[in-house]
Write a structure and sequence with these properties.
single chain; Aminoglycoside 3'-phosphotransferase, Chain: A, domain 2; 2 domains; 6-stranded antiparallel sheet; two-stranded antiparallel ribbon; 12 helices; Kinase-like_dom_sf; Aminoglycoside_PTrfase; Phosphotransferase involved in threonylcarbamoyladenosine t(6)A37 formation in tRNA; transferase; ATP-binding
């Protein structure tokens, strides 16, 4: 048991509303691509307990076991304040997200409500077509809620501007192409790459600006008994392009669906956008292209992040997710002449080099 883990346990044990409770040893709940870790604890009300906040939250019945999540976010690498602030905003919109029950910002610990352990990704591996469709329709409806109700407060978030879009795409060239594949772009390829980035930037910045979760996909959505998914990992929310979260969901880096199905969900989402006046029905074709180009930007970023997670953070498992991101880029890029050079680069240099590494 390391010193930080002991510090975390001591903090939880001394929370006033847990003082008379029996707390189980923390078990790993999940980890993500950041430096954050999550632990699940079971808390049992002892006989004669239930005098504090736990009693108010859960009714105070002795012997009742309740589950909580501890977020461990080292202050050297992570800042818990955006998580707390955005959690409050999303809860105010009626979305299902973890509630912050206790906080220690000096040491980087939060105690959260537990939203369960079944992600969309795990559920869909054994779900029927109709069940998958229901999950996606629910996720898209929740996204509409985020975008429509969040419209008035989106400007309180960091702006998903040209600089940030460019920084993200440079992860592809810096970490994936140069570091992971050891490929050096020649002068013409560098010029083409710059042109591609500018095309994707222009498209993203031309879209209506909304509240963007920024990582809205099957690993960050939890199955619930209701029709509303629980939403996790929202602390990096920004004000940005309308289609960003939708393409993150529909062209997920961790699971793929037939293009006909993606278009069907895309159409359903578009009609919901029209219903809340975020789109107009005569904008369908432009909407499709905007989402396509937004997806290419995201998948360029994702492939770079996966490579960085391997080389910088020692998280090799993410390398297996790179091929799907490249498949998306090539299949979508083939539809647009302005992405021809990018598709050529991947087909002629990136994919052959990846084959050499396997």
């Amino acid at each position: 048991m390391n010193e930080r883990f002991e510090t975390m346990l001591n903090w939880v044990a001394h929370l006033p509303f847990l003082a008379e409770q029996k707390i189980s040893p923390p078990l790993s709940a999940s980890s993500d691509a950041s430096f954050r870790r999550y632990f699940r604890i079971q808390v049992t009300n002892r006989e004669g307990g239930g005098q504090g906040e736990l009693s108010l939250l859960k009714g105070g019945d002795s012997g009742v076991e309740n589950s909580y999540i501890i977020m461990d976010a080292p202050v050297e690498q992570e800042d818990c304040r955006p998580f707390i602030r955005i959690s409050e905003q999303l809860l105010s919109m009626g979305l299902h997200v973890p509630k912050v029950l206790a906080q220690n910002l000096e040491q980087g610990f939060l105690l959260l409500s537990d939203l369960g352990s079944q992600t969309y990704l795990s559920a869909m591996k054994s779900a029927s077509e109709s069940e998958v469709d229901r999950l996606y329709q629910n996720a898209l409806t929740a996204l509409i809620t985020l975008q429509s109700k969040g419209k008035k407060i989106a400007n309180t978030l960091p702006d998903y501007d040209a600089r940030l879009l460019d920084t993200e795409m440079n992860l592809f060239s810096d970490w994936f192409v140069e570091t992971h594949l050891n490929i050096t772009l020649d002068k013409i390829e560098q010029q083409s790459w710059q042109s591609v980035k500018e095309t994707l930037q222009r498209s993203a910045l031309a879209q209506p600006k909304v509240y963007v979760h920024r990582d809205y996909h099957s690993r960050n959505l939890m199955v619930t008994a209701s029709n509303t998914p629980s939403i996790l990992d929202f602390q990096d929310a920004v004000q940005g392009a309308l289609t960003y979260d939708a393409v993150s969901l529909l062209r997920d880096c961790y699971i793929a669906w037939p293009e006909e199905q993606v278009i069907e969900w895309q159409r359903a989402y578009f009609l919901q956008l029209c219903a809340v006046n975020l789109m107009h029905k005569n904008e369908w074709s432009n909407f499709q292209k905007s989402m396509d180009l937004m997806g290419v930007q995201r998948h360029l970023k994702a492939s770079g992040i996966f490579a960085r997670l391997n080389h910088r953070d020692g998280k090799e498992a993410y390398l297996k997710d790179i091929p799907l991101t490249l498949d998306y880029i090539v299949s979508v890029g083939a539809k647009y002449t302005e992405l021809t050079d990018l598709v050529r680069l991947i087909d002629t240099k990136v994919l052959p080099r990846m084959s050499d590494l396997t």
